[in-house]
Amino acid sequence: MKTLSTQIKTLMMLVLFVSATSLLAQENSYQSYDLGAKINEMTLTVGGVLVVATNNGLTGIKPEQSQPVFTFNNFGKLKPEETEFISGSPYIVVSQGAGSKFAGIAKTKRAVIDYMQGKVIFNSDDDSWNQIYTCDVVLPQNKLIVSGIQKTGSKADKITPKVAVYDLNTSKLDYSFFLDTPGRIGVGKDFSVTGTPLLLKDFLIIPTAQGLIAKTHSGEELWTNKIKRITWLVADKTEQEIYGFETTTNGKNTRIHKIGVKGEELWEDDRKVKGIVSKFEILPQGLAVVSDVAGGDGAFAAKSESKITMFSAATGEDLWEKAPKTKGYVQHFYTMEDGILFGIYSGGINKISFDGKTLFKKPLKTGENIMIMAHTPQGLIYITGEDANIVNLETGEQIWDKPLKYKNTASVASTYDSTNNRYLIATEDIVYAVNANSGEVSEFSKLKFEEKESPSTMEIRNGNIFLSSSQNMMALDGNGSEIYHEYYKSPGKSGFMKIVGGVVAAASMVATVSTAYAAGMNNNGISMNNLRNYNDYGKEAKRASDMFASIAGASFDMMSQRFKASAATEDSQFILTKLDNGVGLVKVNKDSGKIEKEILLKDKKPEYKVDEYAGYLYYKANDSTIDAYSLKK
User: Fold this and answer.
1) What is the DSSP letter of 511?
2) What is the DSSP string of 354-409?
3) What is the CA radius of gyration of the chain?
4) Contacts (Cβ under 8 Å, ≥6 apart) of 253
5) Strand 203-208 to strand 211-216: parallel, antiparallel, or no bridges (unpaired)?
């Protein structure tokens, strides 16, 4: 879960962020919150609660409420690395002392906060935990698994490592157990937990420095084995076959173990793969594994690239005589009915059958950074930073006569115009129209966004085409003629770092949530997406709502309801710009290009966050005050 949280922590924040100190607005604030301490950082959560880190601790704000949702000052001021927002959930895990060089000796603390309901679900101090070694939120089961030393019971109990499982929905302890026998006489053994526990329907597996330990949900021991240093585990759908992943001593490679429900090793030997496993899929045909190898220095050093391997689930033997060449890191990886489709970040797409045969007549050459790979009625569409095409998914042959090529750019916007059966692709200076049936390419419109920006957003609105970037907005009619082009000058580098890409669209927040869930919430964060249809990319809000609804708990119900409604500001864009009287935030209508609202910010270094989905602006009015404004009117 921590890996998932790291991969996806930045993407789940729907914000526009710069630095600030005071506010002069053309209207009164919706709510004002004096937090009574210096504000250090603001985080807009996927649930729509603004979490503010102050010198006293954490505070949660919902503009619908006049008072903070929660205030957590138990641990005092927290460093950024001591606060972890669990992806796709209403939970914050707060740590203190875990990163200290005295962590194994001095007291370490953990707390879990439900920011939607404003409740502290778990506080290690309240349950007499003296040291917390690990603290893992497990979804969708909605459990918390904690390991460490608890200062309760006999003298021997107080020094024996322990595991406890809490229900995050009820905030109550389910069960707990010792990892060693309290008071055991003999040489002391290290029972520290080495990885994320695996919670199954009938039992729990804990990876420790002494091996794997399996316990029932009442804490009774089922079995142990001597497989050590496991960092994460995953089971097949039947939960009869379990795979454990061990990072080698040098930290560069991975060993994969297969274990049965009674703890027995099911392979004669473990399987070593080069690099660190980044994707793992249990398929009827075998085990698909992607591992990433970090390159080194020198003529004989390993190259920085991904390795793709297919193992037999029964024996662990390599099923392919020759692994496909990647020559770079895998950026896209999809399992299909007839094989595995993958795209490389440095360029290139290929498809290989489950028995190791190349399905494409030859590897497809593409530009660098494959932004989109998706199904279309004509085949696989791909869009990179410098080219685009549709190819036959069975042979890899081009559907378009030749790839659409353009000047390399970090941002390419695209959409499908169903009325005219065409794809529209916007680069830095040209919008191309591609006939969906024939692949015929035409120059639809020329662009010239100010400040050398490229479009980052493109959508069909009422038969017109809307494009935008950080400081530019444009609408074209169905023939490519300009309806309007509005430019709002950035505040400049004197007080700001220029924001690349502008405000993140509301859809991006729900896309992050639904993708994260599909990619691994049920599989310890290591899994793959199915190749989606190109036109499905607008349906993430429903996916996010359904995902939250599938997990028991009042907070998940609240998050599901948030994404059932349309984004409050889906018809507007927010831009930080230089106004006549200073720096300000403008709300601009996408269809007309007209300003609907201005909030003037007097200071040269403003700090704020915009929740485009709910339609609120959070503003740091001074060192200890947050003002909230409604952007819906």
Assistant:
1) H
2) TTS-B-SSSPBP--SSEEEEEEETTEEEEEESSEEEEE-TTT--BSSSS-EE----
3) 27
4) 247, 272, 273, 274, 275, 276, 291
5) antiparallel
Measure the CA–CA gap between 140 and 558, rounded to whole angstroms: 16
Say how far apart CA 175 and CA 36 lie, in whole Å: 39
Chain centre to alpha carbon of residue 224: 34
Q: Is 281 helix (H, G, I), strand (E, B) or coil?
A: strand
Beta-bridge mates of residue 484: 475
User: Taking the CB of residue 566, how many other CB atoms lie within 10 A of it?
Assistant: 11
Residue 251 exposure: Cα atoms within 13 Å on the Cβ side: 1
Which among 535, 310, 548 has a CA at the least distance from the CA of 423? 535
Residue 11: predicted pLDDT: 33
Joined tokens for residue 266: 């099911």
Among candidates 265, 158, 149, which has minimal Cα distance to 212? 265
The CA distance from 309 to 294, in Å, is 17
Distance (Å, whole) CA 499 – CA 491? 10
Report the DSSP pairing between strands 305-311 and 330-335.
Answer: unpaired
- Residue 493 sits at φ, ψ, to 5 deg, of -85, -5
Dump the DSSP string for 547-597.
Answer: HHHTS-SHHHHHHHHHHHSPPTTTTEEEEEEEETTEEEEEEEETTT--EEE
Mean pLDDT throughout 505-521? 44
DSSP state of 517: I
**What confidence score (pLDDT) does residue 18 get?**
32
DSSP state letter for 613: T
Three-state secondary-structure class, residue 473 = strand
Classify residue 8 by its DSSP letter: H
pLDDT digits (tens, 9 = 90+) for 85-104: 998 899 999 998 765 433 44
* pTM of this structure: 0.85
Residue 28 forms beta bridges with which residues? none
Determine the pLDDT at residue 538.
Answer: 53
310 in Cβ contact with 336 (< 8 Å): no
Host H or E run for residue 256: strand 253-260
- For the record, the structure tokens of 373 come out as 């790979």
Q: E-assigned strands of 139-181?
A: 143-150, 162-167, 172-178
Overall size of the chain counted in residues? 633
Residue 268: exposed, middle, or buried by beta-carbon count in 10 A (0-12, 13-18, 19+)? Answer: exposed
**Cα 591 from Cα 462, distance rounded (Å):** 9
* Residue whose tokens read 């979804």: 139
- Is the separation of the CB atoms in 375 and 353 below 8 Å? no
Both tokens of 209, joined, read 């420095």
**Gap between the Cα atoms of 291 and 499, Å rounded:** 34
Element spanning 472, H or E: strand 472-476
Give 380-396 pLDDT, tens digit per residue.
999 999 999 999 999 99
214 within 8 A of 208, measured Cβ to Cβ: no
Cis, bond preceding 140 (omega within 30 deg of 0): yes
